[in-house]
Design brief:
Helix content: 40-55%
Shape: elongated
Strand order of the largest sheet: 1-2-6-5-4-3-7-8-9
Number of strands: 12
Structural class: alpha/beta
Number of domains: 3
CATH architecture of the largest domain: 3-Layer(aba) Sandwich
CATH topology of the largest domain: Rossmann fold
Strand content: 5-15%
Number of helices: 19
Radius of gyration: 23 Å
């Protein structure tokens, strides 16, 4: 049995969660030894009572590991543990990191830098369009958009990231083979096919319920540098996720809504309580310049090629001089119309390649 297989088995036991597993691993060092431990050894560990010890020692009567591994294989998924390089670094830091993550699609290094976008399932046109716009901008800038594949704001966030040809991760509150809501199956497949992944901590056939969604939410907030609440009523589950983000020392952002709109009461209250008001992705990106550690680039890093640019973006970028360059000079050097130059500069700002200074001057970012 491999360590990953042992973790899958432990994850399928209802009484063994990530906190108990951490205590068990402090004693037994690896998950295989946990499954092989005797009842007496297990009962001697703090927080492991008779019921848990009994369930672990008789795990084969509860868990059909071979059948679960076959389900994973047939579905085309993979399972990663906290020891896997692709396991999100920030997720390891939370109080109860998932024992395993079932992944349908592919995780990349880029996904370690992510923003969660969440909100109401029953949303307004304003909320949906705001979520799409902000997700587009965030994904276009190179950050991964994380959401929960739910109806409403979550769906709009994934769609916005896909429209930008960016990365998006859907963390669901069920097993991969019980994807919910079913009408988002096509969206899930589009995410999986090269744009991100569908991720769950639950075994393949777990149905969604009132307990699985709050558990899912701690992953969205824990994975992200910050959580953006686009639209949420006073009783929205998005507010629970925002509270979890605060407990995990993550930033909380919110989009303002109409003061008399029930769908915006919760998100407006978050702003009142100190969440950063967001009208544009730059509000988040500027904040992340403070939150993300600054490192001095190596000569190798400095020599890396620029991200893929359109022809207009490249001409505008090349027209910016080594010192502060006014927009009219950029337009003249690039030989492009002013409207195209302005649009290209905005996209370059979102990609963190240039910065606008007062007076419509621009500089390249190192």
């Amino acid at each position: 049995m491999t360590p990953t297989e042992a973790c899958i088995a432990l994850n399928m036991l209802p009484t063994v969660g990530p906190v108990r597993l951490r205590k068990l691993l402090e004693v037994f060092k690896n998950p295989e030894r946990v499954l092989a431990a005797k009842r007496g050894e297990l009962r001697g560990i703090e927080g492991i009572g008779n019921e848990v010890a009994e369930q672990i020692s008789n795990w084969e009567s509860t868990v059909d590991l071979a059948a679960e591994l076959e389900r994973v294989r047939e579905f085309g998924a993979t399972v990663i543990t906290q020891d896997s390089p692709s396991y999100p670094k920030s997720l390891r830091e939370i109080h109860a990191p998932p024992i395993v993550l079932y992944v349908w699609g592919e995780l990349t290094d880029r996904d370690h830098h992510a923003i969660g976008i969440i909100g109401a399932r029953r949303t307004t046109h304003y909320g949906t369009e705001s979520a799409k716009k902000l997700a587009y901008q965030i994904a276009y800038a190179g950050l991964t958009v994380i959401s929960g594949l739910a109806r409403g704001i979550d769906t709009a966030a994934h769609q916005g990231a896909l429209a930008a040809k960016g990365r998006t991760i859907a963390v669901i509150g069920s097993g991969l083979s019980k994807l919910y809501p079913p009408e988002n199956q096509a969206l899930a497949e589009k995410i999986r096919n090269g744009n991100g992944a569908i991720v769950s901590e639950f075994s393949m056939e777990i149905e969604p319920d009132r307990q699985t969604f709050p558990m899912r939410n701690r992953i969205i907030s824990g994975w992200s540098h910050g959580i953006l609440v686009v639209e949420a009523g006073l009783n929205s589950g998005a507010l629970i996720t925002a509270s979890q983000a605060i407990e995990q020392n993550r930033s909380v952002y919110a989009v303002p809504g109409q003061i008399n709109a029930p769908s915006a009461m919760g998100s407006n209250r978050l702003i009142q309580q100190g969440a950063k008001l967001v009208m544009d992705a730059s509000d988040i990106l500027d904040d992340l310049q403070i939150l993300l550690p600054e490192t001095k680039p190596s000569p190798e890093a400095a020599a890396r090629p620029l991200p893929e640019l359109t022809t207009d973006e490249r001409r505008v970028y090349d027209a910016i001089e080594s010192s502060e360059t006014p927009i009219d000079r950029i337009a003249a050097k690039s030989e492009l119309p002013s409207a195209i130059v302005s649009s290209a500069l905005l996209r370059l700002e979102l990609k963190r390649l240039v910065k606008q200074l007062p007076g419509k001057y621009f500089v390249k970012l190192g």
